[in-house]
Write a structure and sequence with these properties.
Layout lengths: L5 E13 L2 E9 L9 E3 L2 E3 L6 H13 L4 E13 L5 E10 L14 E6 H7 L3 H17 L1
Parallel strand pairs: 1-6
Antiparallel strand pairs: 1-2, 1-4, 2-3, 2-7, 5-6
Helix pairs in contact: 2-3
């Protein structure tokens, strides 16, 4: 009998408005400014004991970007994939916003942080599934105004 290891992560498409432009926060490892040789995505991570999905997403945002965010109701996306090590992964993404804060690299994390408008954020994301989530978030926000 084969047992497949499973992991679950929760995070968010994190955004703010600056001078009338919506900008998204991305995190990753590697030379993010050049866009090469990096793995760039949304803030996310594993749930800790007794945390809800939303609590995990908000904690991970804080840990990875130093931002206190709020979840936007009505948006939730899930993706499932198998990691290179064979572990089945479920990732849950919410939509979250913040105001009057500056995202920055946390001293506790090895992740770099970018703040980009939509078109640049799409280009920076590593995986097509993340690009689809960002497109969905942008469409959701555009229908809310």
């Amino acid at each position: 009998m084969i047992f497949t290891q499973k992991e679950k992560s929760c995070g968010a498409v994190l955004f703010t408005e600056q001078d009338g432009v919506r900008k998204y926060v991305l995190v990753g490892r590697g030379p993010l400014q050049s866009g090469r040789d990096c793995n760039c995505g949304f803030p996310k991570g594993h749930a800790e004991k007794n945390e809800t999905e939303r609590e995990t997403a908000l904690r991970e945002i804080k840990e990875e970007t130093c931002i206190d965010a709020r979840i936007i109701e009505g948006f939730k996306k899930e993706i499932n994939y198998v990691m290179p090590n064979g572990v089945a992964k479920e990732a849950v993404y919410f939509l979250a916003s913040y105001k009057n804060q500056e995202p920055k690299k946390s001293p506790c994390e090895e992740l770099e942080v970018l703040l980009l408008p939509f078109a640049e954020a799409i280009d920076a994301l590593t995986f097509e599934s993340a690009k689809e989530i960002l497109r969905g978030a942008e469409n959701f926000l555009n229908t809310q105004t």
